[in-house]
Amino acid sequence: MIVVPCPNCGPRNSSDLRNAGEVVARPDPATTSLTEWRSYLYLRENPAGWVTETWYCRSGCRRYFTIERNTSTNEIRESESS
Amino acid sequence: MSSQRLPTRAGELIDRSTSLSFTWNGRSFSGHEGDTIASALAAAGVEVFSRGMKYHRRRGILTADHWDPNLSVQVGDEPNVRAGSRRLVDGMQVSAQNAWPSLRWDLGTANQLVGRFLSAGFYYKTFMRPQFLWHNLYQRILRKFAPGGRVHWKTGTHGDYDKRYAHPDVLVAGGGPAGMAAALSAAEAGASVMLVEQEPELGGHLRWGGPDDLTVLADLREALYSTPGIEVLCDSIVTGRYDHNWVAVMQRSHPVVPERLIKARVGSLVVAPGLVERPYVFAGNDIPGVMLAGAVRRLINLWAVKPGSRAVVLSANAEGDAAVADLESAGVAVIAVLDARAGEDIVQVRGRGRVASVQTGDGRTLKADLLVTATGWSAPTSLLNMAGDRPVYDKVAARYFPQSLPDNVLATGGIEGDGSTAELAAHGRETGALAAQRALRLRHERRTQTARSVRPESTPPASVPDNRIPLRRSPHPECYRSTTHGLVDYSEDISSKDLIQAAGEGFDSIELMKRYTTVTMGPGQGKLETVNAAAVLAEVRALDLADIGTTVWRPPFSPVSLGALAGRIFEPVRRSALQDWHEANGATNLLAGQWVRPDHYGDPMAEATNVRENVGLIDVTPLGKLDLRGPDVANLLNLVYVNRWQKLEVGRVRYGAMVTEDGVVSDDGVTGRLADDHYLMTTTSSGAGAVWEMLEDWLQTYRPDWEVHVTPVTGGLTSINVAGPRSRDLLERLVEDVDLSADAFPYFSVRTGTVSGVQDCIIWRIGFTGELSYEIHVPSGYSLHVWESLVSSGSDLGVAPFGIEAQRILRLEKGHYIVGQDTDGLSKAPTAGLGGLVKLDKADTIGLPELRAAFERTDLPVLVGLQPDDPTIVPEEACQIVAAGSNEILGRVTSSRMSPTLERSICLAQVDPSLASAGTSVTVKLVDGRRITATVQEHHAHVDPEGARQRV
Fold this sequence. Notes:
The complex is a heterodimer. By secondary structure, chain A is mainly beta. Chain A has a single domain, classed as Folate-binding superfamily (Folate-binding fold). Helices cover 11% and strands 37% of the residues of chain A. Chain A has one helix at residues 34-42, and strands at residues 3-6, 10-13, 18-22, 50-56, 64-70, 76-78. In chain A, the strands form two sheets. Chain A has a four-stranded antiparallel sheet with strand order 3-4-5-6, with no helix packed on it. In chain A, strand 5 (64-70) and strand 6 (76-78) form a beta hairpin. In chain B, 23% of the residues lie in helices and 26% in strands. Chain B folds into seven domains: 1-153, 2Fe-2S iron-sulphur cluster binding domain, sarcosine oxidase, alpha subunit, N-terminal domain (Ubiquitin-like (UB roll)), CATH 3.10.20.440; 162-275 and 381-448, FAD/NAD(P)-binding domain, CATH 3.50.50; 279-375, FAD/NAD(P)-binding domain (3-Layer(bba) Sandwich); 480-557, BFD-like [2Fe-2S]-binding domain (Arc Repressor Mutant, subunit A, Orthogonal Bundle); 575-621 and 716-816, Probable tRNA modification gtpase trme, domain 1 (Gyrase A, domain 2); 623-714 and 818-849, Alpha-Beta Plaits, CATH 3.30.70.1400; 858-952, Elongation Factor Tu (Ef-tu), domain 3, CATH 2.40.30. The longest helix of chain B is centred in the middle third of the chain and has 28 residues, at 421-448. In chain B, strands 40-41-42-39-33-43 form a six-stranded mixed sheet, sandwiched between helices. In chain B, strands 44-47-46-45-48-49 form a six-stranded antiparallel β-barrel. The chains are: A mainly beta, B alpha+beta. The interface between A and B is medium-sized, with 27 and 29 residues.
C-alpha cells in the first residue's frame, strides 16, 4: 500500500485509488490497423524503472490523473501531463 | 514438584495479593497477576513444557520470553500460544503440544531411534514411495505427529477483530531504554509518536536489571506517560514495514477486540528492538535445565522464580556475569563459572528430563541441574531488511549491524551498538529528534500537496544532517558451537549435524540450506537460529561468517492470527426506499451485489402470470442511473454505445449496448433525452459503478474538451416498473399531466410528469418483460407514497408486486439477454445478437476496430433461443451443449426457466455457429449426465417475438 498524491486530495493510500495502468496512446479507430489496435489493447512496456501511469481517485474526488512511478522503488514524481 | 517461588524481588512484575487458577494438562495450578503461563508453571516446579517436533525429546524453558521455542502451548481452543510472554488469566486451560498420547509418555520419542530417517531433507527423501501409501498411511500417521496445536473444526470466531488506520509522525518499534528515549525526544520536538512494545510493559532489559536500571526505567516511564503526543501500545508487535513507510502493528490486549491490526502510515520509523540472546550449540543443549542468561535473569527478577538449585554458567559477556550474581542472590549454588572470553567452554550436558551433569571443555564433569549460557546476541534486523537493508557481520563484535537505511527508517539501541543505559538512552534521544525532524518535513511537504487545504504559513523545517554520535561496538568472542553437535533450530529439531550433512549433499548456500533442512523456518522464523545456522555453514566451508550472508527476513516479524488480518469487513448493504415495504409484505430477499432486493413474494410463477394477464409492480431501483447534462452528451453517447445517438429527439429513449475496447459486450441499458442538454442513462444494476467510472475516464482523459457533467442518481431516484396489459389503466388513475394514450406517448418515449401528486417523476415507456410497461423514476423521498398509491388504486385491476425471479422468467420468455450471464468475455457485440445495432460507419466508438473485425469472424459462439424437446425438463443453467455422439463441447445453456406462459421449458444458449440456425437439433448434457435433445429457435424471444404486446 503505497502513497499516491492525488492533485486534489493530496497524498492518499493507494487503496483509496485505482491504478488504471500505463498511459498508452490510443490509435485513431478510423485509420488504425488491427495489429496496431491490439498492441494498444494488450502490449505494455512494463519497465523496471520509471513509468507514466494513470490513477483514479475512486474514494475521493474521482479524478483521473497521471504520475510517474519507479516500479523498482515505488518512488513517485509529478508527471508532465497530469 | 515443589514451589520455586522466591521471596519478593525488587523489580518483580507479579502481584502476590492475587491468585489466578488455571489448569495445565488437566491439573489445577495457580499463579499471580503478572505471571506468564510459563513463569506460573515454573514457580510450581514444572520443568517440561513441550516435546521436540521430530524426536519428541522433553523441552523446558530456554529463553523465558516471546521467542522461547519450547513454550508453545495450547490455551483452550487457541493453538501455539507463547507461554513465555502470554500473561496468565484466571481460568485458563493450558495444555502441551507436540505430545501424543501425553507429555509424559510420548510415543514419538521412538523417533529418536530412527533419527537417521529424520535428518536433513527427510521431507524429500522419506514417504515418497510407494505413492499409494501417501494417502492411506503416511498422511494419517504423520498427522498424529504434526507439530503445533490443534484447531477444532467447531471452533467459532473469537469475536470481532478490528482494524485501525493511524498516521503518527514517528513510530518507535521497541520500548527499551533507547526506544523510550527516542519516543520522548521525538514528542518534545513536536512529532506525534506511537511507541510499540512487544512485551506487556515498557523497559526492555532494564526490567530485569539492578537498582540503577530500575530507577532509570521508572524515570523514563514517568516522563513518557506525562509527555503529550505519545501513544504507548504494549503487548503489540510491529509485524512489517512496507513501501512508503506503511507499518503494520498488531495490537493485542485490546479492551474490546481480541486483536487489532493497525495500519500506520509513518513519517519516520525508529527501529529499536534491542538484541535477542543466542543459544549455544553443544550436545544436550535441548535438555530441560539448559537456559540462556537472560532467561534466568527474567525468571528470578521479573517473576521471582528459582530456575534450579546447582548451576554451571558459561559466560562470554556482562549479561552472563550479571546472571551469576542474580543466581547467587536467589539462593542458587553456582558450582562453576566458565569464562568463554578466556577460552573456557562446555562440551556436553547429560540428563533425562533435566540436566544432571555438565562436562566442561577441560574434562571435568560437574553435577548440576542448571546450565546457563551467555554466548552473545543476534540483532533482530527484520524491519531493517524490509526497508531494503542487508546488515553486515562484524567479526569483532560477533553480530550483524545495519548497513544503509532509507532516510525514513532509523535504528537505535542494541541493534546499532553497545553502551551503558545512559549511552543507549542518549543515542535514542538523538535518533528520536532526527526522526521527528524528518517526519515534520514530510508532514509539511504532504500538506502542501493537497490542493484545497489551507497552505501552511510556516516554512518547512530545515533539513539537518545525521550528526548522531555512533554507539561503540564492544568486542565479543565468536561463540557459536562447541566441539560437539547440538540443536541449532529448536522449533524444527535441526541439529548442527543435519546442517553439515546438508552442506555435504550440496546445499551449501544459506538460502538453499534453509529450504532443504527447514532451519529457521519454525515459529520463531530464525530469531534465535539464523546466526548459528550461518556459523555452522561458515565452519563447514571454512569461510568467515561475513562471507556466508544471511537469509532475508520477511514479514511478519512474529506470527499473526488470520482473524486479525481479515479484520472486520466494511461492505455496505444498499436498500431501496421501498425495501421496508417489501419486507412487510412477504418478500423473500436476495443479495444482488450490494443490494438487498425481493426475489419473490411467495409465488414467482403466479407473479409472472399476473404481469402477463393484469399488471405487476417491481422495484428496480438498483438499475444504474446516470444524469448527463451538457451540450456534448450526444457525442459521449455516440462514443460509448455501439449504436448511433446524434438524432435522438427530446422525449425519446433508445436502447444501447456498450463494449470495451476489445469489442466485448460490457453493459447495456436505455438512455432517454429529457431536454436539449439533459439525458438520463440507465445501466445494468451490477454495472452502475463501472459505467460511471468509465464515462469519467473518457471525459477526463480522452475528451476533456467535451462539456458533459455526469451525476450518479441510482439511489436518489427510486425506479418502479409498472408492467402488464393493464398498466396504462393503472397509471391513468395517478398521472396528472401526461397524456398516456398510445399515440401521444408511444413505445420508447419519455415524459416528465406528476405521479400521485409527486412532481418531476420521469416516466419512460419501455419494458424488459415484453408487456406494455412504464418505468417511473421517483425522487426517493416520495417513492413509498407513489408505490402505495399504485398498489391501492389498482386493486380492481389485479395489481400485485413481483420480484426478481418473476422478472427473470418474463425477460427470458421475451428473450432479453443479461450482460454477464448470457454473454461472457468472448461475446463480441455482433455475436451476441447485436449485429443490427452496431454502426460501423461512425468516426469513433469504443472498440470500433474490434467490432469491424468481429463481423468478419464466423467462428465465434452465437447466442440463440433454445427449447428442450421434452417441455418438462429445465436444463440447469451452465450445462453444456455437446456433440450428438460424443462429449465434444459445442456450447452451453446460459439461462433456463419453466415458462408459465408457454407451460414449457425455455432457454437461451451460446452455441457453435454450426448449430446456430433455427430448427437445428442439439444435445444438452444435464448435470446428472443425462443427454436430452433441444431445438434452436428462430428468435431469442419465446413469447411474442414480434413485440406486439408491448406496442399497444
